[in-house]
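ok here's Heme chaperone HemW, seq below lol
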Amino acid sequence: MSGTLTGTRHTWRMAGALPDGEPVPADGSLPDEATRDVGANGFAVYVHVPFCASRCGYCDFNTYTASELGGGASRDEYAATVLRELDLAAKVVQPRRVDTVFVGGGTPTLLSPSDLGRILEGIDRTWGLAADAEVTTEANPESVDLASLKQLRAAGFTRISLGMQSSASHVLRVLDRKHTAGRAPEAALEAREAGFEHVNLDLIYGTPGETADDFARSLQTVVDAGVDHVSAYALIVEDGTRMAVRMRRGELPYPSDDVAADRYLAAEQALTAAGFGWYEVSNWAREGGECRHNLLYWTGADWWGLGPGAHSHVGGVRWWNVKHPSAYAKRLADGVSPGHGRELLSAEDQHVEDVMLRVRLREGIALDRVEGAAAAQALADGLLDPAAFSAGRLVLTLRGRLLADAVIRDVLP
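and the structure came out like this:
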């Protein structure tokens, strides 16, 4: 069995080219069977903010700098545009409640706290936020300060995810990150001071030029910052990015699978020693700090994605919006759904996706959901936890987490 460690990515914000799919009705309506029990397993809202001050060399998310936007798309008008999509969504689905909201990007905090608050108020007014709703925004460390963080907290945000990536200045330069090495932990401490209940720091490991000591210091930095959640992803070089071009030219070496595995083991050791526990292959949290929004994605809940390029999933129907902010705004101004295309997932499609996501979780998946002989072989190879296996569940060992993609491929029926 072979395979390499990779991390789940935020696919709901639609990186890369859009698939075609079947046409989305002009009013965004869904088949009756898809809307019969919306949110029975939880309902989430994702809001995509596509603006960035600059483009990081490794990023292929659907984001735009000011020079890339062109006419017809305004940051100042963006909240109003998203609220128009929300008005359309309210005519399509009426979930029991909204359990989680996640505002991602891009850099959401390039919008003012008042605009982000308007969007959150619109979601609450339209569908109703659960009393204990988790409300997250992403932020670049240099895009917030104590004052803006207090405003975000007052607007109803309960969780913030800061893009740290590394504490080494030379690694940040390779990644084209603009913040200083010390700004991310400072912002995390400010978020705590502002009253945020949950704070996450993102790390990327395996960047060309990063040493084992660099990554060890990054891990110590996140621990010292007092956060309750850490996401750590191996660097993935996506086609079309500036980093991919630099590597093809020979300016940078390609990432090493062996180095990525070593970094992952270092993260597991350091974070476990500091009181964090893994709950998804690329995510660790202190008790109670798990990202509930991501868990809803990973366990098959329904969600509506607002914004250009955002994905949605309701009742076995998945659809995606047009990518460019100008096209998105024009469709909504014309009273038309911004949906670019959609697909109706078969029972087999849904099963495959369920296995792909649940195998990565600490709770794993029931053995009767996977191919038995392959699971038994993975157990013999030391990739699965024997006690969990005896109890009828497939749960990855540490070695299994290093080879998660290969395990998933092999146990799919």
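fwiw Residues 322 and 340 are 5 Å apart (CA to CA). kinda neat tbh
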